[in-house]
Amino acid sequence: QVQVVESGGGSVRPGGSLRLSCAISGAAGAENYAIGWFRQVPGKEREGVSCIDGRGGTYLADSLKDRFTVSRDNADNTAYLQMNNLKPDDAGDYYCGAVRLLTSVQNFCSTGRSYYNWGQGTQVTVSS
């Protein structure tokens, strides 16, 4: 079984920063896995925030490109999402998903699919 473990959430004030981490293990050929974060708020489906494949290809919503940065350390099979200048609308439960990528990182990040390997989620709260 592929395991996905994520961390880094917390409570910050508007304008604050967080760095989310997501590590995968138990995957054969982990360098072929895409990793991404999908945000969920009550009453909504999981929405792709940012994703990265094993070759440096990334997806980040246009509205977030000036504040968020995604990176990956293939030696540790870990991806990172640096979130700066956080806003209340960024709040929610961030779930890390991972899957062996057969299409594109954009397709992977378009929606959270049930067959992805999911982490336990980490909560992000932004309030004053």
Short description:
The chain is mainly beta. It contains 1 helix and 11 strands.
What does this protein look like?
The protein has 128 residues and is mostly beta strands. It is built from one helix and eleven strands; from the N terminus they run E-E-E-E-E-E-E-E-E-H-E-E. The strands form two sheets. Strands 2, 4, 5, 6, 9, 10 and 11 form a seven-stranded mixed sheet that branches. Strands 1-3-8-7 form a four-stranded antiparallel sheet, with no helix packed on it. It is globular and about 45 Å long. The chain starts with a strand and ends with a strand. The model has no long low-confidence stretch (mean pLDDT 95).
Report the average pLDDT across residues.
95
Extract low-pLDDT stretches: none
**Run of helices and strands:** EEEEEEEEEHEE
Tally of extended strands?
A: 11
Oligomer: single chain
Q: How large is the share of residues in beta strands?
A: over 45%
Proportion in helices: under 10%
Radius of gyration: 14 Å
What would you call the shape? globular
Terminal Cα separation, in Å? 40 Å
Largest sheet: 7 strands, mixed
How many helices? The count is 1
* Structural class by helix and strand composition: mainly beta
